[in-house]
Design brief:
Distance between the termini of chain A: 18 Å
Largest sheet of chain A: 6 strands, antiparallel
Order of helices and strands of chain A: HHHEEEEHEHEEHEHEHEHEEEHEEE
Shape of chain A: globular
Strand order of the largest sheet of chain A: 4-3-6-1-2-5
Order of helices and strands of chain B: HHHHHHHHHHHHHHHH
Largest interface: A-B, 28 and 34 residues
Number of strands of chain A: 16
Oligomer: heterodimer
Structural class of chain B: mainly alpha
Strand content of chain A: 25-35%
């Protein structure tokens, strides 16, 4: 998942022989980063070129990633890799700029809201300066603009607008035929992220209609309601993109399903732990063997494999702890696990699992 | 072994746990900077050594190249590899410094070393019969083992072991002594041998085939320099490690003593089974801070550069509980190691001091 040069077979072989590692180039990272942090090979470095305030608690970070970065599609996200007080932290953020800008200028933006108590978002807001270099992974995610040019409805809440900003700009550049509607829920007018960009798009792109709804400015909270959806022409013919707080996403998808929209038309993306899928089997927990560490522990209930490993004193590599970033993916050699997000039960054999969202169902062996 | 009652052992455990908790709570950027600085220095030394080596036909350059590569190997094995593989830097969440994936620059595979060293040696420290690091199955270093005629010239075995130390460590898990007594069979060791041969092969390939071949006209010089660097590393690491457990006052234990022990008792065994030596900052770094073997055995997964700063506290705990804190200059500690090797070359009747009345 880390964006690094994929070493050729020969380089890989030589790396093992000479340097005891798969990626020979990264052996020199400690030296080259001291000279120029943009030369690091272990991950894609990206220099912070500009930081602008969007709202009181949201900033846009303009980044210039190293040339080898693979680019992205509108609506995708990246993992950001930073060191805070000696500890490497990984978090997932949406790219808020259009891919066209990356192709043209080699720049991308991340629009990040400060989360109350959030270790990484607050650090980014308070400590990250212009000229600093952070790490990026390759982009991922399938929150993508429809290829068949169907009409689109975006429903966004708060900072959930960020991937949609990239999509809207891209659609405008491509002259996407439309109609395209955005229902954007924010607490107050001051919380609108990308206000200028949205207004500019709205005025120059007739296929796009913009509806900003403030939830906290009236006497009673004003959430998404049936009138909002009634106002959308040919709602059932649209592809629908949802991004925002869980409450909004649940409410919107319920209402949309009631109106006969099928799951294939609904696309959603999230950056907070979604509700745990109902674990169909009560038989969770069991003996977990960490084969590399020669350790076997008993687990009960719905503790995930990352928690179980940490409780046993191990410190496997990890990132977001919510199933997004895949930093904790490792090989399960035997046993079955339940995926907390999907509720799906794995096969019994050897396969890749994400430690942070996998719950053992009986005895499990892992290469950790 | 010091005898402390259960209550005293519990108190010992609390005192040492408190020291540990304080360090763990304080882990951060300073520790990250230390290990990253060491990694940077290792890369510089290794690159410098490899680049200079082909010019080794100029004698001072040969010495500089060999020394640089030798120091690189020492630093990588001791302060980086050994400590990283103890999990001292796992909290950094950096895949290049992770205990389970790190592979070091020596013949022994990390996987085998984690079994024999992290698990066997650190759990059963100085328990005769269980800690196979004790004498490495070739040396008799305590009364607990009966004297045999083959022990007479064990100082020579010791010299050979030191010279070939990385190969000794690489084959440690083979348990050759058990094979020779017929207690185990080569067949069971096949999976280990496969991994060991692969790793050792790589190590030999790079120093004795690849880099020499790359510099063909001067290949013999490169072979000699690389062998020299390996020899420097072998002698130094062997010496540091022997000073850690085989000094005069380092205690040994029987299997019964270690059976079903409490955490406090385990701590006591680590304190009395290990020995330190004193010196300057770079002596400690080049020893991987195993000059603080006592602190290392008590807290194997705390970043090693913290040992000098917690040593005072560990000593205070030892004084409080009347436990001997075994330390001295490098020269003094090493001389007692040599004396120990010589003393146990002979049966007791030649070496026994008159019993104190």
């Amino acid at each position: 998942m880390l964006a690094k040069l994929t070493p050729s077979k020969a380089a890989h072989w030589l790396g093992r022989q000479l340097l005891n590692r798969d990626d020979p180039a990264a052996f020199f990272d400690p030296l080259t980063t001291a000279i120029n942090p943009m030369w690091v090979q272990q991950y894609t470095p990206a220099r912070v070129e500009r930081i602008t305030a969007e709202t009181a608690d949201t900033k846009t970070f303009e980044l210039k990633p190293a040339h080898r970065w693979g680019g992205f599609k509108a609506g995708q996200h990246v993992n950001v890799r930073i060191d805070i007080d000696g500890v490497r932290r990984t978090r997932t953020f949406s790219l808020s700029s259009p891919p066209a800008r990356w192709h043209r200028e080699g720049r991308v933006t991340l629009t990040i809201k400060r989360l109350p108590g959030g270790r990484v978002t607050n650090w980014l807001h308070d400590e990250l300066k212009t000229g600093d270099v952070i790490g990026l992974t390759e982009a991922f995610g399938d929150f993508s603009i429809p290829e068949d040019k169907k009409p689109v409805l975006f429903i966004a809440g708060g900072s959930g607008i960020t991937p949609i900003l990239s999509q809207l700009e891209t659609m405008a550049l491509e002259n996407y035929p439309g109609p395209i509607t955005l229902l954007y829920y924010v607490r107050t007018q001051n919380n609108v992220i990308g206000k200028e960009k949205l207004d500019a798009l709205h005025s120059r792109y007739p296929a796009f209609s913009l509806n900003i709804i403030t939830t906290d400015e009236g006497s009673a909270p004003r959430y998404l309601n049936d009138q909002d959806l009634d106002s959308i022409s040919d709602l059932t013919a649209r592809e629908i993109f949802l991004c925002g707080p869980k409450g909004l996403m649940d409410l919107a998808s319920d209402k949309l399903r009631q109106r006969g929209l099928n799951d294939e038309q609904l696309h959603s993306t999230f950056f907070a732990p979604p509700a745990p899928a109902q674990l169909s089997s009560s038989a969770t927990g069991g003996e977990v063997t960490f084969s590399t560490s020669h350790l076997t522990v008993d687990s009960k209930g719905d503790a995930n494999l990352l928690e179980i490993a940490e409780a046993a004193g191990l410190t496997p590599q990890h990132g977001c702890r919510m199933g997004i970033c895949h930093q904790c993916t490792c090989t399960k050699t035997s046993g079955t696990v339940v995926n907390r997000l999907t509720g799906q039960v794995s096969g019994a054999g050897s396969e890749s699992v994400q430690l942070c969202i996998s719950i053992p169902q009986g005895p499990v062996a892992l290469e950790v | 072994m010091n005898t402390l009652n259960d209550q005293q052992l519990d108190e010992l455990q609390k005192d040492l746990d408190a020291i540990r908790d304080e360090v763990v709570a304080d882990l951060g950027e300073r520790d990250a900077n230390h290990i990253r600085g060491m990694v940077r220095l290792h890369r510089k030394l290794e690159v410098a050594g490899r680049v200079m080596m082909p010019f080794g036909f100029i004698p001072p350059v040969f010495l500089a190249a060999t020394a640089s590569l030798g120091l690189a190997k020492i630093l990588e094995n001791m302060e980086i590899g050994h400590n990283v593989m103890h999990g001292q830097y796992d909290w950094m969440n950096d895949p290049s410094l992770n205990s389970q994936t790190y592979e070091w620059d020596t013949a022994c595979s990390s996987e085998s070393w984690r079994r024999t060293h992290n698990f066997e040696h650190h759990t059963y420290t100085n328990v005769i019969g269980k800690d196979r690091d004790y004498g490495y199955a070739v040396l008799r270093l305590s009364d607990d083992e009966a004297w045999r005629p083959r022990h007479t010239f064990q100082i020579l075995n010791y010299a050979v072991l030191s010279i070939l130390f990385q190969w000794g460590v690489a084959l440690h898990e083979l348990e050759a002594e058990k094979l020779s007594y017929g207690k185990s069979h080569l067949k069971e060791k096949r999976p280990f041998l496969r991994v060991a041969a692969k790793k050792a092969g790589r190590q030999a390939f790079k120093d004795y085939v690849f880099f020499p071949a790359l510099t063909l006209p001067v290949a013999p010089i490169v072979v000699a320099g690389n062998a020299g660097a390996n020899l420097i590393r072998n002698l130094w690491s062997s010496t540091v490690i022997f000073c850690g457990h085989f000094t005069q006052d380092a205690e040994t234990f029987t299997e019964e003593q270690a059976e079903g022990e409490s955490k406090g008792h385990w701590y006591l065994r680590q304190l009395t089974g290990s020995s330190n030596f004193t010196g300057g900052k770079w002596l400690h770094i080049m020893s991987g801070h195993l000059s603080f073997q006592i602190e290392h055995h008590v807290f194997p997964d705390l970043p090693a550069h913290r040992y000098p700063e917690i040593s005072e506290k560990v000593q205070a705990v030892c004084r409080k509980h009347g436990i001997h804190y075994n330390t001295g200059s490098f020269g003094k500690q090493y001389s007692t190691v040599l004396k120990r090797i010589l003393r146990y070359s002979l049966p007791e009747r030649f070496t026994q001091r008159p019993a104190v009345a």
